[in-house]
Amino acid sequence: MAAQINPSILSADFARLAQEARAVEGADWLHVDVMDNHFVPNLTLGAPVVEALRKATDTPLDCHLMIEEPDRWAPQYVEAGAGSVTFHAEAAAAPVRLAREIRAQGARASMALKPATPIEPYEDLLPELDMLLVMTVEPGFGGQAFLDIMLPKIRRTRQLIDKHGLQMWLQVDGGVSASTIERCAEAGADVFVAGSAVYGADDPAAAVRGLRQQAESAGAAHHGCAG
Ligand SMILES: O=C(CO)[C@@H](O)[C@H](O)COP(=O)(O)O
């Protein structure tokens, strides 16, 4: 399977969300950043907007919950139409139970790690997940500079996924652009969230195609990314 490019609607025009969602048709998933002003210092949208987006586009929704108490709230996002739900390791009270609940509802279960959170304590949890998200900026805002220091963590996460023979996806998010995507792909990522690099481009759909091509040339399609 090819590398996946997930445009982040955090960089879109929130007054024109439906059109902005359709502007990136051809993307693999639409990345929806849910922020509660507690887990991160920013506030975006909730389940009713996810439900509206679901009706506005055929692109599946990849919801990244940057919220406290994901154990309580994540199921609402599956009900609203998310095809993938990512909760944060730092916020989940019972990550195994939560991942199982998301999967039982019929969505893909994913867990995110903030830059300072190591992957190693979560090794035994990986089989419960469909995707692991390594944040490459501090969560909260689009348009930040990519943290190169996260590349070794991406590599170590890829090694753990391969060690266990898992088919799960490895997503990166934050500062992913034409200048950084190849480094992420070489390190082992196969799902790429890009906000400003897509919505800041004159032609967002062409930006998605360009990023995908770069990621695949750098090796992202060879990491065992399975649909
Ligand atoms: O989750 C986040 C930020 O917390 C990201 O999804 C950003 O929205 C990505 O934006 P760029 O760094 O690509 O501009």
TrEMBL record:
Any one GO CC term of the record: cytoplasm
Binding sites annotated in the UniProt record for a divalent metal cation: 31, 33, 64, 173
Any one Gene Ontology molecular-function term assigned to this protein's record: metal ion binding
Residue intervals passing through the bilayer: none
Uppermost EC category: isomerase
Summary of the function given for this chain in its UniProt record: Catalyzes the reversible epimerization of D-ribulose 5-phosphate to D-xylulose 5-phosphate.
Protein name: Ribulose-phosphate 3-epimerase
Organism of origin: Streptomyces cacaoi
